[in-house]
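Could you help me review a protein record that somebody else here produced? This is what I was given.
***
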Amino acid sequence: MYDLAALDFALAGTVFAGKLHYSPVTDSTNSDAIDAARRVAPHGSVYLANEQLAGRGRGDHAWDSAAGEGLYVSVLLRPLLPAVRLPLLPLATGLAAAKAIRSAAGLSVDLRWPNDLLIGPKKVGGILVESKTSGGSVDFVAAGVGINVHQQTFALDLATPATSLELEAGRRVSRQDLLVFLLESLEREALGLADPAAGSTIPARVEQASTWIRGRKVEVHGPQACTGVTAGLDEHGFLRVRTTDGLITVQTGGIRAVEIS
């Protein structure tokens, strides 16, 4: 279980101080954050659960959120961003999550565009960013992060095999420490987005942290379905894929590796 008093103490001095909302069980922390945003909850509000009954990932894929097994958290942000820069936020959240995992578990994370956290070929976490915009500006963002921490077994029919921090680290990993590291890193990344100069470095930093962004043969799923070789990110964080028909800039969807025969 989480020590909420210790969390509030650890987060003192951050934008999240005094804004932690904990539910033993909820349908979805992202839904909680969105509902709170519509009730004018402040920037930096955090919605944390021990279990999700209807956890979800991108594309409404289900996210298994068993009680006490993983980190299930969403952060409500009201960033001073033009809507055109919003696609950088999931990438910034991925960088923050990767840093938190390194700090809490000593593990290196591979970022699979646009929102998957991998250790080797296995998925350890995911990111779901949902937002509301108006007039070209961002009203609010719910940045959700799910990370497998204590799980020891997984279903065998997953599209990407799964793992947990403890399986990979071979030791106990604290969800509490992981959460503090995540929020500290996310605050730095989110604030960096408000600075055009700092935000412009995110595509290059993601490329450095990922084996998927350049030179990987992939199949793109979604409205821009295609097969080709990844060729980096553009300034908006969209994925370039070189296909037999030319260079395509993928704005939405997911990717999977294609074995080269």
About this structure: The CA atoms of residues 76 and 170 lie 33 Å apart. Residues 213-257 form a domain with the SH3 type barrels. fold (CATH 2.30.30.100). The mean pLDDT is 92.
